[in-house]
Prior knowledge:
Elements: H1 7-12, H2 16-36, H3 51-71, H4 76-85, H5 149-157, E1 160-163, E2 166-169, E3 189-195, E4 197-202, E5 208-216, H6 221-234, E6 245-246, E7 251-254, E8 262-281, E9 287-310, H7 313-319, H8 331-348, E10 350-352, E11 355-357, E12 365-368, E13 371-384, E14 387-400, H9 405-412, H10 429-439, E15 443-446, E16 455-456, E17 459-464, E18 469-471, E19 477-479, H11 480-488, E20 498-501, E21 509-510, E22 515-517, H12 529-538, H13 543-554, H14 565-568, E23 571-573, E24 578-584, E25 590-594, E26 597-601, E27 622-623, E28 626-631, H15 635-638, H16 641-654, E29 658-659, E30 668-670, H17 678-691, E31 698-703, H18 710-721, E32 724-729, H19 738-752, E33 758-759, H20 763-766, E34 777-785, E35 796-803, E36 812-819, H21 829-844, E37 850-856, H22 863-878, E38 887-894, E39 901-903, E40 922-924, E41 934-939, E42 951-958, H23 964-974, H24 989-1005, H25 1008-1018
Parallel strand pairs: 27-29, 28-30, 28-31, 31-32, 34-37, 37-38
Antiparallel strand pairs: 1-2, 3-24, 3-39, 4-14, 4-23, 5-7, 5-9, 6-7, 8-9, 10-11, 11-13, 12-13, 13-14, 15-16, 15-22, 17-20, 18-19, 20-21, 24-40, 25-26, 25-33, 34-35, 35-36, 38-42, 40-41, 41-42
Amino acid sequence: MEETEDSNTTSRNFTPQNRRRFRERNHHHHHNHNHQYHNNHNHPTTISYNNNYHCNNLFRLHHFNTYNRLIGFFDQNFQQQQQQQQQSYQGLLPLPPLLPFHQNQKFRPNKTHFSKPSFKPHKPSSPIVPTCSDNDAVVSVSPIFQVDETLGQQLSSLNINKRNNVIVDTTTQALVAAKRPDNGGVEGQVISLLANHFRVKFDPCQQIFHYNIEISPYPSKEVARVIKKKLVEENSALLSNASPAFDGRKNLYSPVEFQSNRLEFFVNLPVTLSSKSCLESNSDGSKNCKVGVDQKSKVFRININLVSKLDGNELKKYLSEEGEDWVALPQEYVHALDVVLRECPNEKCIPLGRSMYSTSMGGGRDIGGGAVGLRGFFQSLRPTKQGLALNLDFSVTAFHESIGVIEFLQKRIKCLQDLSERKERILTVKERKEVEKELKNLRVFVSHRDTVQRYRFHCLTEEVTGKLWFEDRDGSKLKLVDYFKNHYGYDIQYRNLPCIQISRSKPCYLPMELCMICEGQKFLGKLSDDQTARIMKMGCQKPRERRAIINGVINGPVGPISGNQGEEFKLQVSREMTRLNGRILRPPKLKLGDGGLVSDVFPSCIDRQWSFSGGHVVEGTRIERWALMSFGGSPDQKSNIPKFISQLCLKCDQMGIFLNKSTTIAPQFEPIHVLNNVTLLENRLSKIQRAASNNLQLLVCLMEKKHKGYADLKRIAETRVGVVSQCCLYSNLGKLNAQFLANMALKINAKVGGSTVALFNSLHCQIPRLLKPSEPIIFMGADVTHPHPLDDSSPSVVAVVGSINWPSTNKYVSRMRSQTHRQEIIEDLGEMVNEILAEFFQEVKSLPTRIIFFRDGVSETQFYKVLKEELLSIRAGCDRFPDYKPLITFAVVQKRHHTRLFPDESDPNCVQFCDENVPPGTVVDTVISHPREFDFYLCSHLGVRGTSRPAHYHVLWDESKFTSDEFQNLVYSLCFTFVRCTKPISIVPPAYYAHLAAYRGRLYLETSESMGSSKGAASTVSRVGPVKATPLPKISENVKKLMFYC
């Protein structure tokens, strides 16, 4: 984070050098916060204007602000805007919806004062921007400077009119999140529950004083907290004896006002340095250290400026049921309370995002590969129907083990396991790339001297350690190994390994053997299967155990109320979980096939699982032409193939699926290394397709082990050859149990064009108030997958799926695209929606009258941005069909949240669930749900291991006007129609299919030949802007309409 300049300081010390640095700081800071956080000026609420007039004014304003920055002058409003931009905090909760504005309002400039900061939500009587004239209509529009013909057509199709050169958006003027249509659902059996939400009472009259704190030189978060602690201890009088809360960056919150609005301090921190160390190796490899220690101090300058004075009245209005709909959530006040409740845990734990981890919660566990698992807890403040609540949950994640770099590389890279025994070895080019990949962004400290300094890995040196020279302070050239021998008495052992370089501008070389991995660093590498299993085992607790851990945190020594910080800010946090009533929805009756007839099944078991019981899939396919291909495998494993084919065909027949007992060509056997060669693999697959007269329906692939060539196999088969494939491991052929064969048969049937199950009572029968058999509807799902955290260049992949049969709604087609790196908003959504609607029209011979769109992977801070942009894209896709205006329902599906539901043991009716998860169909839309908006938690599946996580559905837009019961039952019913299993799944199928399709698109980019080079390059290449996304290969026409991604 860059330092903040105030106007007075700038005016006094504004040399040409400072002027340049100041401009760079402001530009950098503004850029970061524009794309990472949502400020008030990002709200899509502007006014009507004349284009030329607005452009000229923008031009003048730009030059005026630039001139002000050059001369160091700021008017009061501009200074306040700069301070607002420099507040560095993560948005905790969704931004408020657009505010309704009255027309013909005159502009009144905002007054700058502390009690009403500039980013406070404005009421209708206080317009926030000037109009061109008193007669212009104030509306919600986007800043459009040139309207071309295409955009004009789109605007006209979206009810956007042009009146007297003023663009009027009559569609998005009321673009606010859907309000709850009723007081919640009433259907279903009532069940008593506990939720891991803890009620937080606050005093609306308690003022919170927000200060901006600048520390120079800029320290790390850990050091900044130490500085703040010492500052408070040494200057309690000037700070009015307060114990302010600090977020570790630039925000300081106090319950009382300091003695002055501007304060400056100097804090000395002791820094331990070693003048000389002698590291001598013993016979057992240990080192004896003789250190001459010098105690020095480092001076930090702290400037504290008052930013604003906050109170809780706006939050009280927001949480009140009687409050007006347009009242916005006061983000800054909620953030201040969140920082207060984190103050004590941050001092005792390792903070990581919104979670804190500590060895006091069970200690760290070695999970192998240079990583350890740590237990911790997640906490976040949320507005709910019961008021403000603290969401507290148990959490587990992997951290880097604090060990030597050499030992770390031995654990991480297989070819370097013998490194300690072969100290003279030289790294190959491939091994260098692996080492750089593993060390990327890691922080290390040195072991040859005592210091608090930490270094971040930048790259490896080109030369090996034994050949490295550097320039000393007096300009003389020194050999690195001689320097360490003469200055520290240490003889470098690994002279043929490169050194760690920690800076690009000022190279500093550190021998690997003297570097240690700093503790407290999240493990960003990809966990192996074994590591993942160990982490999951650490975090897999039965409901009763998880509940006990959470209660232990809230009442424990490292929890959010373990200190007295909350009392100073007049916060009262309940120590008991929230009690509430949920409802268990009735499962739907399902339709199966029975030799061409129809049979039904009712999932009456407690787990809501159902079986065929002699019935068939609702729509079985005929697979006449198929082939089998083997990659690797021992002779004993290959001998199981005839038995596998026979039993698979038998199981398919029992389920109503015809699979020819004879493959089109004899099984093909290839060595496993064929998967490493893309060209050879494509030749082999094409050869099989040609042998089947280019009409192969299915390719079954048996693999000796999991292989990275799986991605190439799927990409070539589905984009180049044009055949769906089903892969399985040889290890599964030895057991061949009925469940394995049934699961494989279901996947094959779905991929080739069949369907597993349908609702016995179609949706129009379940919701007769809205749905009719003659008015088809379509369900769509969308998801975006992003590359690995260490990958800074690969594109994101988006997938959109849509149902194409009515009224069964159990077959889906997909469309996939690549887009800008880590871009969450779907860029080509309109085009993909249009293509799916065309597929629907071909199948049903009619366009759907309603679109129910489920969006996966959206955080709460992005809700309204996604709604604003993607809803318009969906409409634009529909507008390509003449006179087509379907009703749209847009809902977000969240799985990565931390709300958990537990059966209430104090209720006699819940005794059967006391140590089990809540039953499938449990829905909650009261107490812990949003105060006003249309959301609910639905646990549609039965958690077999650990504690169930309910899906959180948030309806952002609803033109169909569903009631709570109608939409909840619709979602729950759809969860039974997933093609790959015979039980309800955890999230609605359209969202699940979109996730699977997006993952398949990601596989298309992760080819075996390019993985190493691309990731290696990503670690060393610096990019100014986002790289243009590599387009995905085109899906073959033979595969395009099938559910090949299942």
